[in-house]
Amino acid sequence: MNILFQLGTAREALDVSMTRVRGGTGGTSPPVEEPPTRSKEDGSRPGHLRRIRADRVLLIIAVPGLAYFLFFHYGALFGNVLAFQDFVPFLGLSGSEWVGLAHFERMFGDPEFWNAVKNTLVIAALQLVFFFPAPLALALLLNSIVGDTIRRFVQSVVYLPHFLSWVIVVALFQQMLGGAGVVNGWLSDLGMGGISVIGNPDAYGPLVIAQLIWKECGWATIIFLAALSQVDEQQYEAAALDGAGWGRRLWHVTLPAIRPVIALLLVLRLGEFLSIGFEQFFLQRQSVGPETGEVLETFVYFTGFASGDFGYAAAVGLFKGVIGVALIYTANKVAHRLGEQGVYQR
Question: Fewer CB near the terminus (10 Å): N or C of the chain?
Fold first, then answer.
């Protein structure tokens, strides 16, 4: 009985203390008043300013990259005014004569310009057909390697050519495939005739594609490997349980999973369809002649800087930029029709 009396007394004391804490004799506590929120009109800091302050270190790191694009990409757009002037460097933009669309009329009637366009289109089509799928195929091959040590070693090896300049790459191919190169030396030792690759206009297209694949294919696999790492492994296991082989797992699991990345890169590549590079073709232009080796980038260089016809060169560059914008817009629309996001949303 004494124990029951003590338990009852302790319970009554607990009830009294909880009532005092709640602020009344009832069982419910009064509503807690939330601190008043200050609106933007009251001088509070907006949400985007708080985010800027929180990410200020990342924003400071991004300043050099933003400055590069602002000055050398967007700021350079004002230089397109040269396409409508007979620009003379000593007179400047304000003193040079305005010629309107005269440079564009000359451009459309210039056979050398159309020859550069033809060469550019041929090489760009070869790059799209042979170079664009090569990094994807290499990424799939690297992703199928089981051992991490072997995979990292192979990745390191295929990444290295990216860090070589085009001068070194072209020199290496000349040493291998030139008239006095290693390959012709072996063929001579075997009593066979030599092959003509360097300096042969007929072999120029496959040669530049082979150089591009050897130099940039490994580096271009980075994005594809990142996309492949996000594929759910359970999908592979489920497909294997259903009896799907390696080929069917690739077609029905891997490729659909990375299809948005493939579509995005394809749209970006089409936007740069006419921008196939400069150094690679500049270094080999003389070996095959302008008839085969001239592309739009080298045509702009030799017309503007070598000949001093800056207005005409600017008109050609503006034409190439407008075509690139039209291509990337069209390709993005096609991606939307196929159900992909593309570069930007609808």
Answer: N
> Model's pTM, two decimal places?
0.77
Residue 1: strand, helix, or coil: coil
Instruction: Please tell me the CATH superfamily of domain 79-337, with its number.
Output: MetI-like (1.10.3720.10)
Phi, psi of 142 (to 5 degrees): -65, -35
The Cβ of residue 179 has, within 10 Å, a number of other Cβ atoms equal to 12
Per-residue CA distances from 134 to 126, 190, 214, 219, 220 (Å): 12, 33, 10, 11, 9
How many other C-beta atoms are found inside a 10 Å radius of the C-beta of residue 115?
16
Q: Where are the domains of the chain?
A: 79-337
* C-alpha to C-alpha distance for 346 and 341, rounded to whole angstroms: 8
pLDDT in tens, 7-66: 444 445 445 444 444 444 444 445 545 555 544 444 445 678 888 888 889 999 999 999
**H helix or E strand, kind and range, residue 159:** helix 148-159
